[in-house]
Amino acid sequence: MHSQSCGRESGRESGRENSRKSSCAGSFAYRRTLGRLLSVLGGMFFCFESSSAQTLFRAKTIITMDPGVPRAEAVAVDKGRVVAVGDFDELMSLAAFEEYQVDSRFAEKVLMPGFIDPHVHPTLPAILTQFPFLAPDDWTLPTGDFPGAHSPRVFREKLTRLVDAHDDPAHPFIVFGYHPLWHGHLQRAELSEWFPEQPVILWHRSFHELFLNSAAIEMLDLDPIAFQQIEQADLARGHFWENGAKALLPSLAYIFAPKRFLAGAKNFLAMAHQGGVTTALDLGTGIFGNAPEELALLRRAVRETNAPVRMVMTPLITDFLARGLTPPEAEKEIDTWRRQNTDQVLVDRHFKLMMDGAIFSGLAQMGPPGYLDGHEGVWMAPLPVTKEWAQHFWKAGYKIHAHTNGDRSTAELLKLLAALQTEHPRPDHRLTLEHFAYATEDQLREFAALGGVISANPYYHYLLSDLYGKFWLGPDRSSQMVRLGSAAKHGIPIALHSDAPMAPLEPLTLAWAATNRVTINGKRTGQTQRISLDQALRAITVDAAWVIGWEDEIGSIRAGKRADFTVLEQDPYKTGVAALRDIQIWGTVFEGRPAPLQAGSATASTIH
Question: What is the number of helices (H) and of strands (E) in the chain?
């Protein structure tokens, strides 16, 4: 018999009752309730249900994402790995499984390979979920529900209520999600007029920018002379972006206090579990300049919550540049981080380059005709410096990831990749273009020829394309943001990511965005860039595993792979693309151990 380590009621009847209740709940209310249940003052604990080492899970259907056995009824698991997949009666009849226990809790549910998010930032939610969200889009988080603000008037009304409720005189009020195209031009003068005494900080929806009023600047005692030396800081306007934002963060050191950061990291783990994610690739280890402490706190958060997720951590070029290290020195330091690896938080052989600026800030590097209002993007590091670091880690055998948003940046990445292949050929490099906000058809054809892969954020089109078309890019380029259809046509492997918190940490929401291409305003634009339902589901499972280089371990349900499953209440191939984001998630199975999102039960028996 199986047992439950969290003291939850088990039994056939309670399992049926919980299933009935969950199936009757509306998806938004369902996820909202789960978000609240999963985190209570940062003290949540994920309920792993223990079972014998050898278990035969039975399901209504198992979508394996393996073309050899695309559907099954049962999966045998031993020591955290899949032993066999097939028809239930067939597996029951085999002598090899006589001692296995049958777990029938999923008899009316759908199993898929554990969802993979190949580009997240655990440290960002660890910081940002300490504060309320007030963004153009709605957010449901472990810390509460935060409806969006679509106009300057609504933003000011909601911001004023939030500021009035702030009751911490020792620290400024901070809110995440401001964007000028929705919320109007707000810098030091405007914020100081609205809030002459209360220190207020708006954290831009991109995460790469902050805006402060005069009271906040005075509270933080910012040195005007020091900030005059920083190109991307404007104290007079209270605006700090990219390197200027990094220079500001030491003045907000309290948000990195271990207790606060740890609670925020637990919020991230709850977000991942709520989205059905069992593996996440971090692409910003060291983003705040102290990778060892970040890694230690993340490992502690996983240990204290018993979280059913693994995180593969990726060092970041800008961390080492800010600390004045050379590429060989950086590689040596990364080796020391790797020696502290655990099974669930580990540094693999990945390295991230930063090409251009944030798409949310309008700082991506756009080729001709550029931005229609005349402003320009930025480079995150001089291109010769980026090439030097890329060459070192390429030759060292690392998998390179390149934060690349605009088509001008894509052009430079293509030059870099061609040079790397000429100087030191690697037949299976899988250099990854990360984000993929805008690229041309010709660039994708060349990228395919060079063997590149793409990890894309389809939420960009959903949230940004309407207003970016109106103010910055024009309707032709904005409607073609995230050209997944073209990438698929050229045979480029595709993964979908959230870049959490740039999009919800919900792979089914990403799949919905990629297959429907409906904007936040309900417009269907760039319909030629849709991908199919099957392509989208592959992009959050088996193709995502390929993109991150873990295809031998995760991504499909087949013998030998880790027993990571996402448990769904509905079959996505039957609901169709329109309903993808409304599919309810029961929970996950992580290396053979069920981890429900809410109290559930199962029926177990031993095969005789």
Answer: 24, 24
DSSP per position, 47-106: -PPP--SEEEEEEEEEE---TTS-EEEEEEEETTEEEEEE-HHHHHT-GGGTTPEEEEEE
The answer to whether the bond into 369 is cis (omega within 30° of 0) is: yes
pLDDT in tens, 368-387: 999 999 999 999 999 999 99
pLDDT higher than threshold 80 for residue 580: yes
Interatomic CA distance for residues 341 and 100, integer angstroms: 32
Q: Give CA angle at 62 (586, 280), nearest 5°.
A: 60
d(C-alpha 199, C-alpha 219), whole Å: 7
Q: Given a cut of 90, is residue 71 above it in pLDDT?
A: yes
For the chain, give the mean pLDDT.
90
Q: For the beta carbon of residue 303, count every other beta carbon within 10 angstroms.
A: 12
Q: How far is CA 78 from the centre of its chain?
A: 30
Q: What pLDDT is recorded for position 46?
A: 76
CA distances from 352 to 123, 286, 449 (A): 16, 11, 22
Q: What is the mean pLDDT of residues 142-169?
A: 96
Cβ atoms of 9 and 601 closer than 8 Å = yes
pLDDT category at 597 given cuts 50, 70, 90 is very high
pLDDT at residue 564 above 60? yes
- Name the percent of the chain lying above pLDDT 70: 90
Residue 450 tokens, joined: 């060079």
Query: What CA–CA distance (Å, rounded) separates 517 from 531?
Result: 9
- Kind of pairing, strands 173-178 and 81-86? unpaired
Average pLDDT over residues 421-439: 97
The answer to whether 233 and 227 are in contact (CB under 8 A) is yes
CA nearest neighbour of 85 among 99, 100, 75, 77: 75
Residue 273 host element (H or E): helix 258-274
Rounded-to-5 percentages of helix, strand, coil across the chain: 40, 20, 40
DSSP-assigned beta bridge partners for residue 480: none
> Which residue type sits at 239?
H
**CB-count burial class (<10 Å; 0-12, 13-18, 19+) for 59:** buried
From the list 454, 456, 566, 554, the residue with the least C-alpha distance to 511 is: 456
**In the prediction, which pLDDT does 605 show?**
38
What pLDDT score does 231 carry? 85
Q: Cα–Cα distance between 430 and 95 in angstroms, integer?
A: 42
Beta partners for residue 403, in sequence order: 354, 434
| Rounded percentage of the chain residues whose pLDDT exceeds 90 | 87
How confident is the model over 88-112, as pLDDT tens digits? 999 999 999 999 999 999 999 999 9
**Cα-flanking dihedrals φ and ψ of residue 256, to 5°?**
-100, 5
Q: What's the rounded Cα separation, in Å, for the pair 97 and 81?
A: 14
**Nearest alpha carbon to residue 72 among 55, 83, 60, 80:** 60
Token readout for 237 is: 């306007």
- Helix axis angle, 291-305 relative to 327-338, nearest 10°? 20
Nearest-angstrom CA–CA distance, 25 and 597: 14
Helix (H, G, I), strand (E, B) or coil at 113: strand
* Type of residue found at 2: H
CB atoms within 10 A of CB 337: 18
Whole-angstrom Cα distance, residue 303 to residue 46?
10
Please check the confidence at residue 135 and state whether its pLDDT lies above 60.
yes
